[in-house]
Amino acid sequence: MWTPTEEEKYGVVICSFRGSVPQGLVLEIGETVQILEKCEGWYRGVSTKKPNVKGIFPANYIHLKKAIVSNRGQYETVVPLEDSIVTEVTATLQEWASLWKQLYVKHKVDLFYKLRHVMNELIDLRRQLLSGHLTQDQVREVKRHITVRLDWGNEHLGLDLVPRKDFEVVDADQISVSDLYKMHLSSRQSVQQSTSQVDTMRPRHGETCRIPVPHHFFLSLKSFTYNTIGEDTDVFFSLYDMREGKQISERFLVRLNKNGGPRNPEKIERMCALFTDLSSKDMKRDLYVVAHVIRIGRMLLNDSKKGPAHLHYRRPYGCAVLSILDVLQSLTELKEEKDFVLKVYTCNNESEWSQIHENIIRKSSAKYSAPSASHGLIISLQLLRGDMEQIRRENPMVFNRGLAITRKLGFPDVIMPGDIRNDLYLTLEKGDFERGGKSVQKNIEVTMYVLYADGEILKDCISLGSGEPNRSSYHSFVLYHSNSPRWGEIIKLPIPIDRFRGSHLRFEFRHCSTKDKGEKKLFGFAFSPLMRDDGTTLSDDIHELYVYKCDENSTFNNHALYLGLPCCKEDYNGCPNIPSSLIFQRSTKESFFISTQLSSTKLTQNVDLLALLKWKAFPDRIMDILGRLRHVSGEEIVKFLQDILDTLFVILDDNTEKYGLLVFQSLVFIINLLRDIKYFHFRPVMDTYIQKHFAGALAYKELIRCLKWYMDCSAELIRQDHIQEAMRALEYLFKFIVQSRILYSRATCGMEEEQFRSSIQELFQSIRFVLSLDSRNSETLLFTQAALLNSFPTIFDELLQMFTVQEVAEFVRGTLGSMPSTVHIGQSMDVVKLQSIARTVDSRLFSFSESRRILLPVVLHHIHLHLRQQKELLICSGILGSIFSIVKTSSLEADVMEEVEMMVESLLDVLLQTLLTIMSKSHAQEAGEYVSCLLSLLRQMCDTHYQHLLDNFQSKDELKEFLLKIFCVFRNLMKMSVFPRDWMVMRLLTSNIIVTTVQYLSSALHKNFTETDFDFKVWNSYFSLAVLFINQPSLQLEIITSTKRKKILDKYGDMRVMMAYELFSMWQNLGEHKIHFIPGMIGPFLGVTLVPQPEVRNIMIPIFHDMMDWEQRKNGNFKQVEAELIDKLDSMVSEGKGDESYRELFGLLDCMKGEETENKKIGCTVNLMNFYKSEINKEEMYIRYIHKLCDMHLQAENYTEAAFTLLLYCELLQWEERPLREFLHYPSQTEWQRKEGLCRKIIHYFNKGKSWEFGIPLCRELACQYESLYDYQSLSWIRKMEASYYDNIMEQQRLEPEFFRVGFYGRKFPFFLRNKEYVCRGHDYERLEAFQQRMLSEFPQAVAMQHPNHPDDTILQCDAQYLQIYAVTPIPDYVDVLQMDRVPDRVKSFYRVNNVRKFRYDRPFHKGPKDKENEFKSLWIERTTLTLTHSLPGISRWFEVERRELVEVSPLENAIQVVENKNQELRALISQYQHKQVHGNVNLLSMCLNGVIDAAVNGGIARYQEAFFDKDYITKHPGDAEKITQLKELMQEQVHVLGVGLAVHEKFVHPEMRPLHKKLIDQFQMMRASLYHEFPGLDKLSPACSGTSTPRGNVLASHSPMSPENIKMTHRHSPMNLMGTGRHSSSSLSSHTSSEAGNVVMLGDSSMGEAPEDLYHHMQLAYPNPRYQGSVTNVSVLSSSQASPSSSSLSSTHSAPSQMITSAPSSARGSPSLPDKYRHAREMMLLLPTHRDRPSSAMYPAAILENGQLPNFQRALFQQVVGACKPCSDPNLSVAEKAVPAAPSSWSLDSGAREAQPFLSAHTGCILAPPVPPRSLLHGHYSLHFDAFHHPLGDTPPALPARTLRKSPLHPIPASPTSPQSGLDGSNSTLSGSASSGVSSLSESNFGHSSEAPPRTDTMDSVPSQAWNADEDLEPPYLPVHYSLSESAVLDSIKAQPCRSHSAPGCVIPQDPMDPPALPPKPYHPRLPALEHDEGMLLREEAERPRGLHRKASLPPGSTKEEQARMAWEHSRGEQ
Questions:
Q1: pLDDT at 1663
Q2: Which H or E run includes 1851?
Q3: Are 1854 and 1372 in contact (CB under 8 A)?
Q4: Please, is 877 exposed, middle or buried when counting C-beta atoms within 10 Å of its C-beta (0-12, 13-18, 19+)?
Q5: 1694, 1906 in Cβ contact below 8 A?
Q6: How many CB atoms lie within 10 A of CB 950?
Q7: Can you list the alpha helix ranges (DSSP code H) found in 655-777?
Q8: Residue 1643 near residue 1796 (C-beta atoms within 8 A)
Q9: CB-side exposure of 476: number of CA atoms within 13 Å?
Q10: pTM: predicted TM-score of the whole model, two decimal places
Q11: What is the mean pLDDT of residues 370-389?
């Protein structure tokens, strides 16, 4: 049974639970749970992550924790009973976890690893806290470390700053806003410094200042590397101050043996010391670590004779130094030990040994030397900070190593009470001794003993250095042969205090002989007592001691014998009558010098101090003794503080009248001494003395009297130093006064109470008197007043012991009130006065409400004065902060209401004014302080306060001014961001206070300024504030975590909703005045609706309805509201504001965000423009967007589109004189002027875009206007402009753009693109790959679709982005222009690609079973026609597809189109040669003829015959009879055209190329023979092929150009003609002459029988000039054995623009793989004569075979380039694909090319031949640079591909299959079974087994190529046409042609029966050439010949034709 839990309320999940049972609660390890019920090992409860979901979980999965349960029952809350900082660490780590992973994703690796380290540290610190094993100090330290790390991580992750007090998070509700502000500041500083967190509250005035932190150096000797001493050594370390020239520390001694190890084995790894008590001042001194090395051994190191071996002397060896300043920085940063090597130098002259360290530091290298590079001391140093207790606690390991504490010489900066010390430091300075009859100087050793009064030698009272035990005697080191030795050695004498008096020092001098005996001979001694007769110790000075003679026989047993002698000069002066008969005689010529320094807390060297302490011995000298106390050093006074104070008060009691003032002065001196930082810590000693030891019960009377006397004198005396000192000592003087009175009262049971009170009141009157004096003219008096004010607040606590709170408060009020106001005193006094007030406010007195009632008015008065004058703002803010802090903590008391009322009246207005001034100057810190003060005050105010405030205003003007001020401050507060972004707690509290205040004030606004007194300014200010408030970033809860959002909502609610309701309510209260805010507030209110809070939106929307309603009432419409709404919405959403749902409402605007790409912006702008135009007819916004769009186009250099865009505005204007206002950048002008300016600008843009045809109508329109106005100057200008445009059309080259169809599929696309398709006009030179890459970069999330099939619903509805891109072919509208013969191709090319609205692409497929023998029987074409919404070009580079039409073209119709297109191409090319437009270059004609004839001979036409002339086909397709007849006629026509072409070829062919011509003739005969059986009369049709030669034949062959009728053999409206006349893409079937100028296509076949070496030879001989080698760029090599239709896989088609004078090679158009060395050659091709650029698909290489094999060099090339890429082994193919059998050749019309016929063109430099395709090469064709063939044949030339197989890293996007190319040379796509397309790649697919269009598996890379154009003539555009007949006759003969419209293919259904199908017009229409008489006859004969098909008959009668052809043929044979 489930029972409620009693104890088990809270726990942590220690094992994840999957909730696998019914009602199971899914839990992750680490989650916390609240337990509600339990039952048999199971708990029921909730996870704190999801408090709404209850469930059960196993009890043993939970670790229980203690918790506090409140409100037990259904709605109980549980808070874990653990340290709050542990809870914070847990929550913070959970929040960091997800953010930490994101750092890695965002590549912020450095922060990622730092944060990981900090998180691990926090986990460890949290574990330490939870362990419960730490002391309180350790807990505090751990918490400090935790908070520093938490704040650091929060700052670096952009999280909120957490305000803390004592390391715990503060509750903002429990403290004042001022304190909260200071805590934020403190937390920010601690984060920035990353040091210990200081107390977050501002220290109260009067608090003790910080103790200076002492520094300590830890030094450890690691080793001493010496190898030449071989003796024991003593190493002394000390700290030396170079500037002062003295040692500042004791010495640290390390005793080493001769091996370099410690002499005491226990010292191993323990040779370390701590140099203590270095102040911050010491750390700035020029300090050095100095090491002196003293060896212990022979007299001379290298001379064994000098001295016996058994005697050891201390001898100087060397010294080493290390500058602390140099290493201090690294030590400070490192915070651990760091090693240093100190080089040891020896002294060159022993007499200078005492100065060796100075010489080394000064680098006086002449005085020292380095004995060996190996000598050195290795030490480690570490800098430690803190007092000794802290050091011991933090570094226990250091103290466990036998650490030697090495103290500073003298006292540290801070002397701590209880620090007992009694050390005398003696320095052996120098001596001067006689030679004593010796030939050499002495080796002197000094021995020292400390002896007590009874002659006993004191044990262990001599210390050579720390680290070694004390000893009883001291032996100095010996300087060799020196009678004036200088030692400079410091010895410490730690003599017990009780033995000090009566002890003395004895120094014995011995000469150390180096003779064999090696004796040490005593020759003298000196002595010195430690304490003088007057009780003072030896003074700190250099003392010259007398040297007395003696010898070894002298005895010192009776020390009295010499103690009576004078020890020094002072001693001798004291006792001049010394008998000379004593046994010890003074050596007058010898002297000995020592210096001493006493560091003792018990002994004094001061005579005056001793005299004071023993004053009773000198009663007559008391006045003098008290006067001399001021000259005693502070150290001496604090040592004897209690004794001195006792003495002073005893003297005071002894004679008050006589000594009172002197004792008072002495007391003041001592009190002020304790104010010194050095003795600050003796104040507790003074406090203890006053509380426990002070006994002067009568002293208060004299102290009050003296103090009052000082006060009263201050007005008269000029020198007031002693008065100022007394003022500074006020605190302790009052402590003595009060304690004395207490003692007296206690002793007398309260007698004289009234006298005491009156004396205190009199004293305060004197204080007020001093403060009221005018000190402006007296600087001395100013200092006195300042001293008094500084000390005054310190006496309150003492007074409270004797007086009530009210009494003390009255004293203080009177005193503060006596101070002059601000205007009467100087600024320095202002500061002191305010500081005094600040200390008063911080004092205990002010915490009592009784005293505040008295003191607050005077405090507020002074603050008010300062704020009015804007003086001392920071101090004032501090005082106010303290007041608000006290008021907040006392807010439960009833008196607080009154205090707040007082502050509101005094401060609120001046605070607002101050804030406005500060904010205008942008003083951030002051602004923050005062904002917190204002918010504190507003927060304390309640209804009553607001009511009183509003009632107190005398007039509405005052109220208005107040409201404007406070609204302005609030607005600035939100705009200026006074508080940083991460101060979330502060910002939320601020918002809460603002919304509360506004709710109070809004009623006053409504009440006073609505009806007759309506004030727009106040209301506008209010609305602006409300809008700003709701839009605050800190209130946008949607962007923060759910946990934080819940906390905020629980605490404050959604303040945006609160303010929105307030705003709505106030709007409703406006009534009829609402009209004043229409349309001004529409924009701001709309900004509020951008907030992603549904409730706020619901509140605001009715306001807009209301606005419309009010405007409708006033104006009868709401156009203003409508206009403003649309305008503001537009700009807001364009800037990317609003959430997803908001932008969805305005999808048109969605892409206008600043970061979007230019294309998207243009698209959005077009949509918006149409929206404004069509949907709401808002003309002004429409025009604005026209100009916005125009600017975008100009920025993208889309000049044509920019012109079309501006044209929209131009069309809105009329040629009228109506005046127009200033608008956008247009000035005020007439409509005519504006339209004229627009027209000129548009014409200019059309010119820049090279769209002159569009500009010409505008020129004419302007010309018409100018002409009507007789403005001939402008008319002349515009006519010249028009003429120049005509010139440009004919002379300047223009690039034909590519067109690409783009489909945007998926729901992730913007609203206006989603699941739509567009056609885009590409940039100049932009190929499919480049366009594809551009689109993918604009939509980086998009996936490129790899097939052209229309996507299904799964793609359309998925949450992704799919792009489908392929090239399409334009279908021009101006078909008539394109069919006109006399129109130059430059003109036609414009109409092919401009004003185009329809586009198409083709896709081949097999319908029904595929015939493997002849696949053309089943090869169909799927033709898709796209119709756009607008023509291209237009106002955008792309428009949406409006309609799709899909038709299927049958195989027979396909064949008709192919043959007809080829015929058309041949006619055009032949015509060019007849007009001599190609200037004798027969190369193109040779290639074209060779391609058609060769293909026909080898089965091209034969395949069509097999497919469509077969009886079975005719039987099965009876309806195709007419089409079959048409195909036959086209074949006959082709034979005729070929015949004429051969005749022309014979005329122009180069003699060396005659073999080629012969071969063509032979193959043509074979072609005729192959067709003979099909067409019996065919041999009569072609005179060029007959064997006889006649003169007429010669005439025909040589001179007769083709007749117009021969050329125009197809009706111009025939659908086949229309299909063939556009820009077509060729396929692989179409073995088209290479589309790239410079491509060489070498053809080969497995059955080739003749080797082409002779042809290759021809090439070398005919064109040896290497100039052309650069032009011949590509050689394609391919073996063609058997090809399938799909082997022509649709490579992308890119037709070069026909406007160019030469065809631009594909590489010149940005192909990325073109080698730089060839790029210039391709660019040069632009300058050469050209052919009509024709699109072509992949140029398939063909290998040249020799006896069925590849020639050697080609075989090598083939192996290198093609061999590894055969389809059967293509790694890109699947197994299934590799298994597909090869289909029969789709090249049946042209696969019979047995020989390659390479030609080098003098003009184009290219070798062209129709290629034969191989089996499907899935990687595209493999091209070799022609340079490869210039190597010797035996070499294997390098294979240099023309293009890389992969153009870009992007996956290629398939282009669309495009229209068939005309011609039988393989340039027809449909014939081959595949259409060339703009799709990047399509893979091999087998069409043989499907009746429907198969799916595409496109993988093959495109190999784009350029087409050439045979249409473009190079002669002048308008040559006159000469006729040998009359012109009319010829024209009549043309008109006589029978004509009918040919029906469309069976499956093509035209849209409109009245119009021809929308297919491209003919591209090739040569103009009518000049005809000779015979040719005219031919025309007439042809006109009379009937034709079977309904198209224009153009073939002449058979006999005539046969004769002409025969004559031409015989003529050519004869010449050969």
A1: 35
A2: none
A3: no
A4: buried
A5: yes
A6: 17
A7: 656-673, 683-688, 699-713, 721-728, 730-748, 753-772
A8: yes
A9: 31
A10: 0.56
A11: 83
CA 1023, CA 1076: separation in Å to the nearest integer?
12
Rounded CA separation 932/927 (Å): 8
Cα distance between residue 600 and residue 1081, in whole Å: 83
Class of residue 1153 by CB neighbours under 10 A (exposed 0-12, middle 13-18, buried 19+)? middle
Q: In 1288-1407, at which residue ranges do the beta strands (DSSP E only) sit?
A: 1299-1305, 1316-1321, 1343-1344, 1362-1371, 1396-1406
Which alpha helices (H) appear in 38-132, and where do they start and end? 84-105, 109-131
CA 1137 to chain centre: 22
Cβ count within 10 A of residue 381: 21
Which H, E and C letters describe 1322-1343, residue by residue?
A: CCCCCCHHHHHHHHHHHCCCCE
Instruction: Please give the sequence-ordered ranges of beta strands (E in DSSP) within 1752-1899, or none if there are none.
Output: 1823-1824
The one-letter amino acid code at 189 reads Q
For position 1146, what pLDDT does the model report?
A: 56
Find the Cα–Cα–Cα–Cα dihedral 1630, 1634, 1640, 1645, rounded to 10°. Answer: 10
Give the pair of three-digit tokens for residue 1650: 């003749």
Torsions phi, psi for 1728 (to 5 deg): -95, 160
Inter-CA distances, 655 with 71, 84, 626, 742, 1583, Å: 73, 63, 13, 22, 162
pLDDT reported for residue 1194: 92
pLDDT tens, position by position, 736-752: 888 888 888 888 887 88
pLDDT digits (tens, 9 = 90+) for 867-921: 888 888 888 888 888 888 888 887 666 678 888 888 888 888 888 888 888 888 7
DSSP 931-943: HHHHHHHHHH--H
Confidence of residue 665 (pLDDT cuts 50, 70, 90): confident
Mean pLDDT score of the chain, rounded to an integer? 74
CA 1439 to each of CA 119, 536, 1023, 1442: distance values in angstroms, whole numbers, following the listed order: 56, 111, 45, 9
> Using CA atoms, how far apart are residues 1076 and 1078, in angstroms rounded to an integer?
6
Amino acid at the residue 1219: P
Q: Tell me the per-residue pLDDT of 83-109, one tens digit each, with 9 for 90 and over.
A: 788 888 888 898 888 888 888 888 888
Residue 332 sits at the vertex; the CA angle it makes with 330 and 333, to the nearest 5 degrees, is: 65
What would the pLDDT profile of 1385-1434 be if each residue is shown by its tens digit? 788 889 989 999 999 988 888 888 887 777 888 888 999 999 999 999 99
In this structure, the number of other CB atoms found within 10 A of the CB of residue 1171 comes to 20
pLDDT one-digit tens code per residue, 1324-1364: 888 999 999 999 988 888 999 988 888 888 889 998 999 99
pLDDT, position 475: 94
Q: What pLDDT is attached to residue 228?
A: 67
A 10 A CB-CB count for 1556 gives: 22
Residue 1534: CB atoms within 10 A of its CB come to 25
Q: Which residues are within 8 A (CB) of 1952 and not within 5 positions of it... i.e. 6 or more apart?
A: none
Q: Alpha-carbon distance 1182 to 1189, whole Å?
A: 10
Neighbours of 1619 (CB within 10 A): 32
Give the CA distances from residue 1092 to residues 849, 1037, 1084, 1095, 1103, in Å, rounded to whole numbers and listed in that order. 48, 9, 15, 9, 18
Q: Which of 1654, 1647, 1640 is CA-nearest to residue 1679?
A: 1647
Provide the 3-class DSSP secondary structure of residue 1371. strand
Distance CA 1924, CA 1919 (A): 16
Q: How many Cα atoms are found within 13 Å in the side-chain-facing hemisphere of 1071?
A: 8
Pairing of strands 1419-1432, 252-256: unpaired
Q: Give the pLDDT confidence score for residue 582 in this predicted structure.
A: 64
For helices 1179-1195 and 1199-1212, the axis angle rounded to 10 degrees is 160
Partnered with residue 448 across adjacent β-strands are 474, 507
Q: What is the residue whose two structure tokens read 């050891």?
A: 312
pLDDT of 1299 > 70? The answer is: yes
Within 10 Å of residue 1726's Cβ, how many Cβ atoms? 16
pLDDT reported for residue 1636 = 33
